[in-house]
Amino acid sequence: MITLHHLNFSRSTRALWLLEELGIEYELVEHKRDQNFRAPPSLSAVHPLGKAPVIVDDGLILAESGTILRYLEQKYGDGRLVPAPGTPDRAVHDEWLDFVESSAALPVMLTLLGGMTGGLPEGLKAFTSPELSKTLGYISDRVTDRTYLMGDRLTLADIQMSYLLAALGRTGQLDAYPAVAEYLDRLEETPGLRKAIEKGGPMAPPDRA
Fold first, then answer.
1. What CATH number does residue 141 fall under?
2. In DSSP terms, which residues pair with 7 in a beta bridge?
């Protein structure tokens, strides 16, 4: 049986969502953030990085949510959450899947860290603000007139995208991007994510900063 090590208010909701979406049997091990919003030492006993998500499957230990999503889909999925291999749609899908934790993550996480620490230094803010605007504009253009990133079909890329948008939404960063906010609403209405949140809690703290 798969074991998922889950941290509250974290990226590991993505893995929990996919497990629910695919109907895979799993054991959920929950870890709680401390008073400083840091991951507890118990996660370091599971993986050297001390972060979540981490899955254990037949002795294989994997971290990094994108890797976990790909692994679970390839081993246990039925192909309904990815376009067919070798097609242009698959290439576009994989670009979006990788975009989340590469190009998008830097301005998003800097913005969120700034909000948690009293604000970014002016030089860093001058870099981060236009990059965040570019990132959210790019996502907005994609999801305008589309239900999901790849059209009417939920994919791994949507699951991967969910955490960053949920974290931005709680701080009001999506207010100027209604298409992105509506896209996040659609993701949060999916049965798989609703089940994941019921079991593991919301992706981000509910109160706006």
1. 1.20.1050.10
2. 31
